[in-house]
Amino acid sequence: MTVPSPPRFGGALQLTGEGRAPRELFAGVTLAALALPLNIGYATAAGLPATVGIYATLVPLVVFALTTGSRHLVVGPDATIAALLAAALGPIVAAGADPAELAWASAMCVGATMVAFWAFRLGGLVRFVSKAVLVGFIGGLGIHVLTSQIRKIMAVDVEAEHWPGEVLELVRAIPDVSIANVAVGIGTIIALRVMRRWMPKVPGALVVLAAATALIAAIEPEGVGLLGDVPSGLPTLAFPTLGLDVWFDLVAVSVAIAVLTTAEGTLIAQRYARQHGEPLETNGEVFALGASNVAAAVSGSMPIGASASRTAAISAAGARTQMPSVIAALVVALVVLFFTDLVARLPEAALAGLVANAVVSTIEVGEFRRFGRLRRSELGIAVGCAAGVLLVGPIGGIVIAVLVSAVDVVRRAAAAPWAELSDDVSDPAIERFRAADPDAFPDGGLRLLRPGGPLFFANADELRDRMAATASDPTTEWIVLDLETVSDIDPTAAEALTESIEAALGHGVVVAFTRVTQPVQALLDRYGLLPLVGAERVYPSNRAVRTAFAGQRSSVDSDPREDD
After folding, report:
1. 20 to 30 A Cα–Cα from 212, which one of 8, 16, 305, 352?
2. What is the per-residue burial (b if ≥16 Cβ within 10 Å, else e) of 373-398?
3. Can you point out the beta strands (E) in 42-158?
4. In the beta sheet, which residues pair with residue 372?
5. How far, in Å, CA of 316 to CA of 199, rounded?
6. Cβ count within 10 A of residue 413
7. Backbone angles phi, psi at 539, to 5 degrees
8. Per-residue confidence of the chain (564 residues) as pLDDT tens digits?
9. Which domains does the chain have, with CATH numbers?
10. 64, 291 in Cβ contact below 8 A?
11. Residues 6+ apart with CB under 8 A from 171
12. Nearest-10 Cα torsion for 459, 132, 259, 248
């Protein structure tokens, strides 16, 4: 195996054009103001210390900036990662493990998985996850995180195994809510919405949190909790040390985060590369994301992924390189060295409001409506995945999403339409075929069947039914399978095809193949289908089939179903 090369080291940091430095500096400060409070919020949403989120804005950002080929993609923790970690780490923490070290270990597993994706060029496998599955799964995780943030805004403790029970307990706890805490949380959401509408270029998260912190410090309302002590100083580089059994417990959630991060990261990077007319090697982005997660693990952080909202914000601020990520890391480094006392005074309800406001954008209601308008089956898949996350939890939702993706792929492949080219079939597509190439169209008695995709276990019964119905028609003399669009034949379909050909031959019907690709012809030979029909019954084109059929008719004077 040839190991692919990573992107050019530091290439996305290079400034292009005069006068860009001030814009990159401004974008970097904006990114720090946006990312720091969000990262803290996502860390606390996952049940992790604030420092795990803060450190995600340091070394991982710099490593990604040095290894990525994208000039625009911004990384960091997000709602999807927070929800998956909260669900997966809870039982392990209950057994006595350190949540921060579990987060580091998960980041290491995520990074190792993504580096393996890069090395074996497996990043493209995420294309098998349909958009309906992705929208439904992420939407379900978004609702899950939103519910947990509502609990923090209400300042109530509820215990429930799954989301429906949590919602019920929250409703029951309404009489016990902290009015002051609710006011801070809802006020934060409203203020963020107003600033986004009327002052989109101002770092709303920083301004609103600063205002909320100052207000709470001035009036000291009862019942409003603060973030608490945040250790100052830069992270120390260390490798997570956990038992082998704990590492195995983290594999499932880490692979899920890696797959989702790969899917989102490559899509966002490709979109911005196309928008700016820049080249991008997609597999290299998988390497950069993996390397930055390994950096997160050894620098005391949580797993990170691509952030669509931060990427859009920094692009709107004028950034055209990865320099803002490096600048943001430097700004946050100053904060953790000298201003952690201010961070400790952040109201927890305001952080919950910040996360809740950000999470709403992950619930793509518009996509659900679009699926319902365009194809109801896609809406069912999306809603089913979201419901799976909410009813059985994020980890169970992963299994459901994988199964739904697999079933959807099989369903689509099995539903590929067949076409029958014969004189007595009335179909617009066939009429166009006849008009375009009348000489290649079959005569009466010649039935040409064209499968619309691979022949495999899911459509083997349809293959039997079509062949049997065609062979039993007394007007049928030849059955010709046009295999131009058939890319594969599995053993189940080969068995069905063998039985169908034998039955047709028993009816005195000639069976032939046409337009067979070389790989499929090799499969036909391996399955013993070529000897069954005869090598002379494999034709290069439909015109050649018609010529052979006409030639046989002219040479047969007795039973028209007798083959010479």
Report:
1. 305
2. eeeeebbebbbbbbebbbebbbeebb
3. 75-76
4. none
5. 13
6. 17
7. -110, 150
8. 555 655 556 667 776 655 678 888 888 988 998 899 999 999 999 999 999 999 999 999 999 999 998 988 999 999 889 989 988 888 888 788 899 999 999 999 999 999 999 988 877 666 667 788 888 988 998 998 899 899 999 988 887 778 889 899 999 999 989 899 999 999 999 999 998 888 887 778 888 888 999 999 888 888 788 888 888 999 988 888 888 889 999 998 999 899 888 888 888 888 888 888 888 888 889 999 999 999 999 999 999 999 988 888 888 877 888 999 999 999 999 999 999 998 899 999 999 999 998 888 888 899 999 999 988 888 988 998 899 889 988 878 877 877 887 787 788 778 777 887 654 444 454 455 555 555 545 556 888 899 988 999 999 999 999 999 999 989 899 999 999 999 999 999 999 999 999 999 999 999 999 999 999 999 999 999 999 999 899 999 888 888 888 887 666 544 444 443
9. 20-411 (no CATH), 419-552 (3.30.750.24)
10. yes
11. none
12. -80
**16 is written with which tokens?**
């292009």
- Reading the block at residue 472, the tokens are 């039993």
Residue with tokens 């190792």: 112
Tallying the residues shown for the chain, one arrives at: 564
Place of tokens 């519910």: 147
